Amino acid sequence: MPAVTDGPTPTGPMTSAQATSVVLKAAVVPTVVVGVLAVVVGAVLKGGNGALGAFLGALVAIVFFVGGQWGIDKVLGGNPDTAMAGALLVYVVQILVLFVLIALLKDATWLDGRVFAATIMVCTITWLGASVWAWNRTKVLYVEPASTVATDEEADQ
């Protein structure tokens, strides 16, 4: 019987890009499910405005997280030394977009604001929980081994 590895990587460690793909899939699916459930609950409790608020809330959460991951991947792909600055830039842009959204939707009567906000919160918690679960079960190489590096014994000769 083959050995069972911990997580979604039966063939061993993944590259960062492969791990990101696995984590995105692991986070998107439950978040979409929760978003659909929120739309149904919003429609039952608050009618059409509630359903629209839930739909837009789920859409905002998913777009924010997928867009944020895409932005960080682009920064890391260019130069890993800029990871922290890139992550901070993505975060600041997301906060600014959120402020603009709040300003645009503060007086909207065509959606239920409480359902909108509640759906964003529930989808955010779902996304974060699923991504933490997936990252904890994904083996990622922090340093990719090079095949041309000499061992200590070879270097001593």
Secondary-structure class: mainly alpha
Task: Tell me, rounded to a whole number, the average pLDDT.
Answer: 83
- The total strand number stands at 0
Largest beta-sheet details = none
Helix-strand topology string: HHHH
Number of helices: 4
Q: What would you call the shape?
A: flat
> Helical content, roughly?
over 70%
Percent strand equals under 5%
- Spans of 5+ residues with little confidence (pLDDT < 50)? 1-9
Count of discrete structural domains = 1
Tell me the span between the first and last alpha carbons.
Answer: 42 Å
Radius of gyration: 21 Å
Secondary structure layout plus pairing:
Elements: H1 16-78, H2 83-105, H3 113-136, H4 152-156
Describe this structure in words.
The protein is mostly helical. The chain has one domain. The chain is 73% helix and 0% strand. The protein has four helices and no strands. Helix 1 crosses helix 2 and helix 1 crosses helix 3. The chain is flat, with a radius of gyration of 21 Å. 21% of the residues are buried. The N terminus is likely disordered.
Structure described in brief:
The chain is mainly alpha-helical. It contains four helices and no strands. It is 73% helix and 0% strand.
Output the keywords.
4 helices; 157 residues; single chain; mainly alpha; flat
